[in-house]
Design goal:
With 791 residues, this protein is an alpha+beta fold. The chain contains 28 helices and 20 strands.
Amino acid sequence: MNWPFENNTASIVRKLTKRSLQSEKRRNRMVITAVALAAFLISFGGGLMVSLLQMQNNQVADTYEAVFNHITEQDIETMKEQPGIARAGEYYLIGEELSARGFKGTFLYADDAMLYTGRHQMSLTDGKLPERANEIIVSKSWLKKFEPDAIIGDSVSLETDSFRDEYRITGIMDSAAAEGTDTYSFIISKEQLVQYADYSSQGYRAYVHLKNDTAMSVDEIKDYFEQLAVKHGLPSPVYHSQYLSLAASNPGLSMVTSIGLIAVVVLAGGCVVIQSIFRISIIDKIQSFGQLRTLGATKKQISRMVRKEGRQLGWFGILLGTILGIIVPAFLVPDGLNLSGNLAVMFGTAFICRGMVGISIRKPVKMAANVSPIEAVRFVSEQKNLAQRGRIRRNLNPFTLGKMNFNRDRKKSASIIVSLSIGGVLLLCASTLLLTYSPDTISRRYFPNGDYKIYIDSDQDLSELFYSGNPLTEELRQQVLDIDGVEAVITARQSAGADFQAGSYSGGGMGDMITPENYPAIENALTEGSMPPDSHSILAAKAYKELKAGTTLQLTLGGKTAAVTVSGLFDLSKLTVGYGHGDLQLDGAMLFLPKELFEELLPEADNYQYAWDIVSDPSKDAAVRMGLLEIADTHTGIALDTFSDQVAYHQSSYSVPFHIMQGISLFISLFGVINLINTTLSNQMARKQEVSILRSIGMTKKQLYQMITVEGIVCVMSSIFLTILAGFPIAYTLHRQFSKTAYGTPTPFQFPFLFMALYFLLLVTVEFILSTWTIRNQEKHSFIEQLRAID
């Protein structure tokens, strides 16, 4: 705004701004790159969260809210007749069978409603459901590997124990978890199901979806299903945990909080880099600003000009980075497209980055506005006590000159080191958290004592198996110990399958024995109540929502029942014992029982061992693996679980988030690289005349290269030292807190040597490249011409 008595100089400011932008192309590229990088990181993080949240919503929308197990066909028909139920998918799992052709087949029955309900896990891509006993649906991955020429209507042979006949293909399905596995799914007909030898009329499951689920709260949904179970004598339902967690939480608030954390991290690096770029630019143009002041330019006009430059460059970088940050998640998570969410992220990113640019250029703007004509003419870089330092005798050579150049403007050098270190600290923290959630770290949680586990894997009830003969015997333990490389066999779990009834609520799960070895870990995972004070008290997982400390229930183990009291609840996420096996860990401990209760309910069993941890010599891993595989194949009722299989599973399941975190870490490191390039080039450009004087008195190209390189390496090494000194305690604290939250107890700290080594190597390499560029640039100009430019 201009007052009536004030001249309108807006057009002059615009022209000066335009000329300044045209004259500083290198600085412009640096600013645009820094702003675009910050905008990309924020919009990418926000866009990714929006896409993942939308994908989760898509996966649970119009699917199911609860599952009823162990019911009959009539029960399912009764559910379909209820006015509040939109759909009840009929499902029967037969189980896995090994084929003579070298694969495992998972056989099941499902109707049309079930296929629609489970469409995100398996979908019928072609054909129709089987109707006759000799008809079947096969998975696309199985067909591709074993019958590549077969089409719908052709007959195939499966060669398993229960399915040895020829089956005509009526449909082809695609399974979300089919890639990278030797287990394939097959859907049989109802006619074939009832002919199955172990068929049970009460073996069905119903996946139920309500009509008005979006208008109901979590408690209302649970109340509806509980009343339905009581009214029709059905077992208590198992709820869709992903659906309920999304319905009960506030994903919008969580997303905003996460974007805010990303923004804070990015702003910390972006502000320092952009401010440094503009500060060096202002110092290089001090005399130009002084000349403008001499010609009559006011402080306000200078401020407007510099601020206008920053805004124009900022908006260009914001637009570029934001668009890229929205496009990339759309390709990574195509099923999570959300236009309104992405627009909100774009506007939020623009607002945040616009503020970042405003904060970054505030100090440089004041610096430029406060320059007086006299100061500009006399301006040199701040060099305190130069006269005093000059009287000190020094052995002048390229190396000492490089050190002197670094030390002569300590404020500027300190600013460069701090700005470089911030990028390093951010990378150190990000890469540390990345290792905290790496597939190896997650998998190691389940393998605390070694890379292998042997556990009971039998269709027979555990209690019956204990009576007939537990396969985990001392003889088997000795066979394992005889394998070359095996050092110890540790009893990890003593367990049995348990069922309980608390009023109208019933449930069940694996019950583990409380031992002196696992007692501290269980106690640490308690969220309510206390450890069992007597033999008729137990602990239950917090996942059983209906159970509280003090609840009395009837516990059944091995056919015998006892009245027990729940003395406490434990959090599965904080539990460091009782882990399950296989990819999904479905047999993890859900209850903890005193030893006396085991002996009371299973008096005729003397061996409750369920799982062993195998401690082995890593250098003999091949021999250990082959020996354990041979034992697992030659003994019935046991299976082998390996650390490598867990790692492979987590790599396939979480590869996209993990690589995304890797990308974010690498992008953060670019802040430091950009700042190094800018400060080094600006410093060398500002000292052209000084270098020309050194060349005129005999300094060779090699000596000049050594001087410039030493100065840059001292700066880089100082920033590396400060990065480690300041970043290590921050990264260690973050690791402790995040790992404790994720795993219950802090995991061993892993310093990200690879990430930091690559980052430090990149800084050193860039510095050498810049030194070489400076020398070549100097050679293009005669030092006589550069000396003439001195006023």
